[in-house]
Design goal:
Shape of chain B: globular
Structural class of chain B: alpha/beta
Number of strands of chain B: 9
Helix content of chain A: over 70%
Oligomer: heterodimer
CATH architecture of chain A: Orthogonal Bundle
Strand order of the largest sheet of chain B: 5-6-7-3-8-9
Order of helices and strands of chain A: HHHHHHHHHHHHHHH
Largest sheet of chain B: 6 strands, mixed
Largest interface: A-B, 27 and 30 residues
CATH class of chain B: Alpha Beta
Shape of chain A: globular
Largest sheet of chain A: none
CATH class of chain A: Mainly Alpha
Number of helices of chain A: 15
Radius of gyration of chain B: 18 Å
Number of domains of chain A: 1
Amino acid sequence: MWTQITAVLNDYTFQVVALGTGMLGLISGVVGTYVTLRKESLLGDALSHSALPGIGIGFLLMQRKEFVVLLLGAVVSGLMATGLIQLMSKKSPVKFDSALSVVLSSFFGLGLVIMTIIQRNPNAQQAGLDSFIFGQASAMLTRDVWLIVGASMIMLLLISLFWKEFKIFTFDADYGKTLGFSSRWVNLLLSTMIVLTIILGLEAVGVILISALLIGPSVAARQWSDKLSVVMGLAGIIGAVSGAAGTMISTVGVRIPTGPTIVIVLSIFIVGSLLFSPKRGLIAKRMKFYKKQKAFRQQIRRLEEEQGK
Amino acid sequence: MAEEEVITIRQLTVAYDANPVLWNITAAFKKGKITAIIGPNGAGKSTLIKSMLEFVKPATGQVKYSIDKQTKEYKKVKNKIAYVPQNSSVDWDFPATVLDVVLMGRYGHLGWLKRPKKSDRDIAEEMLKKVDMESFRHRQISQLSGGQRQRVFLARALAQQADVYLLDEPLAGVDMKTERIIMNLLKELTKRGKTVIVVHHDLQSVRDYFDEVLFINQEVVAAGSVKEVFTQENITATYQQDHNLGEGASS
């Protein structure tokens, strides 16, 4: 087992892939912090699930796995779905959560149908297309990894430049508008980054679980700090570790898809944070409650004794 | 003595879907005065403030500001107008400290991309002192009471050092101490020639706190100085029809 692990760690292909998933985890954690704080977690889920038909159609058009075309298809169908959700919840009596479930599952269903059709046609090029459902990091090419690294660097730069604008529009968008910032531009920039992050992660993590990588790290990180910059940095680290560790486990094991292993590692971070964080953790809160309870009991007993005299 | 009108609203009508929320509102707010906007639930008080800030697009009519002698539209004078939203409008579990939030009041002066400087920090600290929250500056905002949250929001608006202040129900659900602090600070602003407009719900305190009053219930019912206009007749006329309860319901 151990020799197997060291062999994997020293493998160049693994290193490249782990760099890709680690970076992907990092940028998902960072960008995802805005998603959770803006309470748009469900939209991320809808966006990623509904990317599947776009990937399928992209493949049908090219008849081979052209990464950029597949991602373009993913963006188009993902945006169509979110547009449809907005339209339904605003212009029809259907409520947001129902609109979301209906659109998400219809698009995902359509995606599965298209994928099945593709797989029935014997075509050597289709190999690895199903990695988009559950994620298979080993299907990533060096080129794909550099795309992830490059795009992540640009997004990190944008976040550091527009730090205060993103902060105010996440906390209090109406107030941000009154300060003279264009909400259209800030929101467009933020949404584009969110979409880009999801799309970049589709191959490695898969459409079903990529939103977990987007949401999970910041949920865990929020437990440890009350400062936006620290929460975001920590979310990046948790995402990166989950991405790299998940990839390693899935490589060592017998072809477990990468998406699920990454998400399982991530869940350990989340559960640990929810339980053990010193201020907001469940255990700390319980302890504090018992301490208070004990103090109250003692106070009451003392009062009783005094009255008894 | 002719009083200077800082904000003029002309024939403003706002509709969500087909139903008008505000109908043909014509009103003016005077420089150096504190005005209460009074009306029942659903009368369009918040909508009026929001259309003054161009959050909602009116079906007809316009709002003009004449802050430094020239009459301009809202976009041109944004930085001179400070808005205090209802404190329930944001998520207070956001990871930020009291000082972080007050510093946001300086963002407009900084413009795109620039970071707050020492001088901005000093202004934020000074405003925190004014609302008696300086000892809370590094406190996480989720740990504040309703009244303290409202004071932080006021400090943020003060940090803008604006000429016009628009406040949406700043006294809703706050403690006595906060109410006193807020109203004293608003009075002080008017003494320095600033214009203050407050959406207000408590009829009891109108006489003590305000110079002017604007009664609305979708339409303007009455407007003028508290002395002349704040009468039982106008109150009754304003509250006669409650749009939340339907036509003709009286209270």
